[in-house]
Amino acid sequence: MAERKAGRRAVAAWVLATLLLAGCDDRRGTEGDAQLPASARVAVVAVVPETVTLVDELPGRVAPFRVAEIRAQVGGIIEKRLFVQGSEVAAGQTLFQIDPAPFEADVDSAAAVLQRAEAGLTRARLRQERATALLPSKAISREAYDDAVTDLAQATATVAEARATLRRRQLDLDFTSVRAPIAGRIGPALASEGTLVSTTMSTPLAVVQQIDRVYVDLRRPSGRLDTLRAAAADDAVASLPVTLHAADGRPYPMAGRVLFSDISVDPGTGNVTVRLEVPNAERLLLPGMYVRADLPRAVRRNALLVPQEAVVRDDAAQPFLVVVGADKRGSRRPVELGPVIRGRHLVLSGLEPGETIVVQGQDRVQGEAVLETVPYVPAGAGKT
């Protein structure tokens, strides 16, 4: 009996010793793991050199390519308005009809005067021909012959004057049809049927604006004239299109080209005007609209661009990037930044081509921690 109890105590002691040893091994493993750097998952991107265009974002206003004020060239009563307000009109299209009756009467009167003058011309020509035939035989005097020649010249001048008067009366009759001098979009009618119009009216009958092409006038500080001149002298920059955006940032599908910059500075604002010509076949731009334009000022090759998220600032507001080395460990690198181009910072110095930077998860880079890297995916990528 005593031997059995002793055997049981020995087995219990062995089990307890085994459990204690296992606990010690677990603690050693935990302490050893705590001394190794834990991996951190970060989103990274490799910096690849690019060719980028540096632009100045400038405000501008849309102006029509051409403007024509529709005015009466003769006085009278408007009988008809022959266009739809706000519509497209063609060059030469009749817009208003002025009562033509008085002008038709003037044409008839001028035509009758011309006929009388032509009859007088015929009589003077016959007299001159007879005088010419009689002069060698001295059947008429030299004075009578001279009178016949003079009468013919006067009759010829009278006919020319009558013809000119008839043409003028015909022009006045033609002017009773008020036509569009250019093609474009017409605004509201500023005169209605029954209005008495004259050539001295200060208010036009309507206004037509050509907007299939438009101008955009940009305002640029005069202090940047040197940059503007340098861009105009660089063919690679001058040939680049100017992209346009709506006030809410929405891009327009058409681009403009620079025509010229103003030769004077606005004394009130200190700005100069840069005029663009923009195709506008779809009539997306209307006169007076406010737009923003990206005006190219330089082309930079082998530029290094990084996402804005990748830039971190220290307590002194100095920018730096977290660069991932070949050993998968991150290190802070101070950099010099340039302008933001389409949501990415231009890095002027402190970064080399081909280096990998952390874009998301910079706070997980601690000491000598080994980084677990995944490719950076920009927000909205892959969405339709």
Mean pLDDT comes to 86
| Record field, number of beta strands | 20
Distance between the termini: 85 Å
Inertia-based shape: elongated
Spans of at least 5 consecutive residues whose pLDDT stays below 50 are: 13-37
What integer value in Å does the Rg equal? 45 Å
Q: Give the biggest beta sheet.
A: 6 strands, mixed
Question: What would you say this structure looks like, in words?
Answer:
Strands 1, 14, 15, 16, 19 and 20 form a 6-stranded mixed sheet that branches. The chain has a 6-stranded antiparallel barrel with strand order 2-9-12-11-10-13. It is elongated. The protein starts with a helix and ends in a 9-residue tail after the last strand. It is built from 5 helices and 20 strands. A hairpin with a 5-residue loop joins strand 14 and strand 15. The chain has 384 residues and is an alpha+beta fold.
Key phrases:
384 residues; alpha+beta; 20 strands; 37% strand
